[in-house]
Design goal:
With about 230 residues, the protein is an alpha+beta fold. The chain contains nine helices and eleven strands.
Length: about 230
């Protein structure tokens, strides 16, 4: 056991992209002062506008990254384990631009910022891995911006469903990863627009049953959605 995790689960963290370049000794050093935290659903982990004291490593469960302005709130991203979050802010010391809360019972490892900085100062492999991860996040951000600005809400939903089906190895029936209200926010839609959009995709073989969606004619759906490698990551 390490930090209360089975050895196999702890060693599995080595595959996370930001940690993959760590030298063996530095992998253990990074977690020397870390803590494992278990949370129930709907726990706010960090509020936007504050710098993080820790790098968050999601071991199990799901976390919503969200933002608020006046009386409005939007879902920016839903993360499922395993994942790291607030990496850029951990490296730079900048204030977080998003808040984070758990969506379900969740376990995460909290690594002190000082430990991350200390190893970055001496481990070139770690620096390269972190830089690659941050570059990847920039690409994802550009893709998301293009998706929002260049597609209709119906096209965004169609491409989202195609991506879910890809992750489900092409199964006809797929589970929505979060409740429809949060999904609508993530796709830049109101819940009412999402309901209308789901009905609008029936003409392309999409059916909805609660939190499940079926795609009976992927070719027709893809013909409408027009997925593109410079917007969508498959």
């Amino acid at each position: 056991m390490y930090l209360g995790l089975p050895e196999s689960e702890f060693d599995g963290l080595r595959t996370l992209p930001p940690l993959s370049g760590l030298q063996d000794g530095n992998f253990e050093r990074l977690f020397a002062d870390a803590t494992l935290q278990s949370c129930t659903a709907q726990i706010v982990l960090l509020t936007e506008g504050a710098p993080p004291d820790h790098l968050f490593i999601l071991v199990s469960g799901a976390v919503e990254l969200f933002a608020q302005w006046q009386d409005r709130e939007t879902t920016m991203e839903v993360l499922r384990s395993p994942a790291c979050f607030f990496l850029a802010e951990t490296v730079s010391g900048a204030d977080c631009l998003m808040s984070a809360r758990t969506l379900e019972p969740t376990r995460m490892i909290l690594v002190p910022v000082e430990a991350v900085h200390a190893i970055l100062a001496e481990d070139a492999g770690f620096v390269r891995a972190v830089a690659a991860e941050l570059a990847d996040r920039v690409q994802l951000s550009v893709r998301a911006t293009k998706n929002l600005k260049m597609r209709t809400s119906l096209e965004r939903l169609a491409n989202f469903i195609l991506s879910l089906q890809d992750m489900a190895d092409g199964r006809t029936w797929i589970e929505l990863p979060t409740e429809k209200r949060k999904l609508a926010s993530q796709l830049g839609m109101t819940p009412e627009n999402l309901s209308r959009a789901l009905k609008g995709l029936q003409a392309y073989g999409v059916k909805v049953d609660g939190g499940r969606v079926s795609v009976s004619n992927r070719d027709e759906l893809a013909k409408f959605a027009k997925p593109h490698p410079l917007i969508d990551r498959r």
